[in-house]
Amino acid sequence: MDFQNLISDKMLGVKASAIREIFKVAGKPDVISFAGGLPAPESFPVADIKTICNDILDNEPITALQYGISEGYVPLKELVLNRMKEKEDIGRENDDIIIVSGSQQGCDLTAKVLLNEGDGVICEEPSFIGCLNTFRTYNAKLYGVPMNEDGMDLAVLEETLKKNQNIKLIYTIPTFQNPSGITSSLAVRKGMLELAQKYNVMILEDNPYGELRFSGEKIPTIKSMDTTGHVIYLGSFSKVFSPGLRLAYLIMDKGIMEKIVVGKQATDVHTNVFSQMIAARYLKDYNIDESIETSRKLYKHRCHLMLSCMDTYFPKNVSYTRPDGGIFIWVTLPEGVDTGKLMLEAVERKVAFVPGNAFMTDLDKPSHCFRLNYSTMSDEKIEKGIKILGDLLKERL
Amino acid sequence: MDFQNLISDKMLGVKASAIREIFKVAGKPDVISFAGGLPAPESFPVADIKTICNDILDNEPITALQYGISEGYVPLKELVLNRMKEKEDIGRENDDIIIVSGSQQGCDLTAKVLLNEGDGVICEEPSFIGCLNTFRTYNAKLYGVPMNEDGMDLAVLEETLKKNQNIKLIYTIPTFQNPSGITSSLAVRKGMLELAQKYNVMILEDNPYGELRFSGEKIPTIKSMDTTGHVIYLGSFSKVFSPGLRLAYLIMDKGIMEKIVVGKQATDVHTNVFSQMIAARYLKDYNIDESIETSRKLYKHRCHLMLSCMDTYFPKNVSYTRPDGGIFIWVTLPEGVDTGKLMLEAVERKVAFVPGNAFMTDLDKPSHCFRLNYSTMSDEKIEKGIKILGDLLKERL
Description:
CATH architecture of the largest domain in chain A: 3-Layer(aba) Sandwich
CATH topology of the largest domain in chain A: Aspartate Aminotransferase, domain 2
Distance between the termini of chain A: 49 Å
Number of strands of chain A: 14
Shape of chain A: globular
Number of helices of chain A: 14
Oligomer: homodimer
Mean pLDDT of chain A: 96
Strand order of the largest sheet of chain A: 2-9-8-7-6-3-4-5
Largest sheet of chain A: 8 strands, mixed
Number of domains of chain A: 2
């Protein structure tokens, strides 16, 4: 049977993530993989989670195992709202929260509620492949705005908004961006918000890495400056607690939330209740800030080690970002080099990274950039892998 | 700020589930609610789940808490495939399985992969409100085919397929249907499959209640008769293990599965790993059949008690289904009675049910039918609630 004529137009054009294919190679045990984006497993509070699970199953098993409500487990919603108010000054009177099954679902529901086929989404160029693919599954048109050292180029952003009446949404990861590691400056954040208000489009502020700052000064979230309801804030437990439990949250104006809840109902009814209870108990009775501090130190060490190895082994015509947090470094080679081809050579030498084109609005255009991840790697592997990569770059550039 | 002009067309028309609104009333502690659809909490194997959680967190915590793969936890996939092969003779050589975050997501991904806006979906009339709403969020056109005592009316089904070239999918719950409790006969199942093949449309066979048979002879699933790949099978852990853990699975031809996996990636990346491991361990080391047998006995008792109370207290011009399994009874009043209005009166007397229009393709047309659920109710409440309802019906009919 030929299924092709039954597949929807919007899905016909979407391919499996390029990263997935790379993982098949990178996942081999003898390959040093800088291709991933996983949190360090040392950061998972396993013993605490075990205590919590026993407590829940002893005292509230039915709540954990029975159907829940689409908006999320009420104590978790309240704990997250309080924490976000305290840490990020997020949450106006007209805002509400919904617990979702990971950040990707936060992006999916936002797309479902806002986008008609052909509607436009502005994204940073480069940006997170997962959410770009989500927008593609709604047949949205992606408009990439190039990243400067301090975030989106505001002039290009305004020009894009002015030219394209179909734009509904600006998608941004302002803090320790995936894949670039860039943090948008306060001026860029304010500029984005003003333009969103001026052209009446929404901003989806995706902030999974925000708490993983290990140097520099904290910069306010865009949502904390939002007085008009134009910003949808997407926070996640994946990088500060556990990604396997699939927990994230959206905070936004009630006027949009109402439809997000209907979308959530029609998508997976509600998020895993047991996991929501585990996270709630952890926030309430344990010290998540202490646990995040441990991750910060670990990532700072690994990031700085990787950067110092790159300073030593990489040729001088290669540049790269020096992130203040998060888990990624973005490397720029001289124009004309195709990092897709380079990746195949690197894999032969048992080192993996993700070529830049995977993060672009046009996946087929070769890129002279690539992404490195340092969050899960031992010192030995960072040193060995970066040296191998440096040797390859010196041969090819 | 007015968000209405930013909302997508497909979501503008979809309302929050009517059942949700009813739940707000029905959830009050002094109301006897036959409006729900929850499994009996006595059936949750709490002690076993606790043992399993400790074992997982002692021995494989990183696997449970780290990112997983979109297709699902491999041991769970294999255990489910083996079980479905043994119990239902499901799974051809070209079939594959994906673990999803509950049945609703199975329906959502099927809709995402098959449906363009305006494409047609045939459903039983009445049918499960949750999945009808999912199709609505894709701007699909719903075609209801009336249910006879033995399932869909095949003549109307063929006429509908013949007349409407836009139809891509037939959605059916052939066993102990929600809301009607009707089980489609073998002849109807064969007829549906033949028509799907003839008109080259897919069937989504949703079977969450199939294992909850408490009387009558087992009838083969449509998927077990599918030699051409036209049937997508949707199974669930919600009614036989735990709904709070959000675990279900799709089994279908690899030619469609490939796109379902891409959709899953773009929707929530993967299903909660910890929960998948809990279910896998339960299937492997415990006796799920014994646990299901306990549920069957419980539901048989409650169903038969409810039916016998209805025989005693309901007026003679009221008819109702006598299900062989599952958790729902469908009540038909004389034409012209609006069960939406009747429900408000019933709630005043502290009894709740769901009026029939909630399960129809046209939600706004009054219905003379309603749904009763018996799965979570004590004997006392069944007797008391049905008597109150019977008295109300006698007064109004």
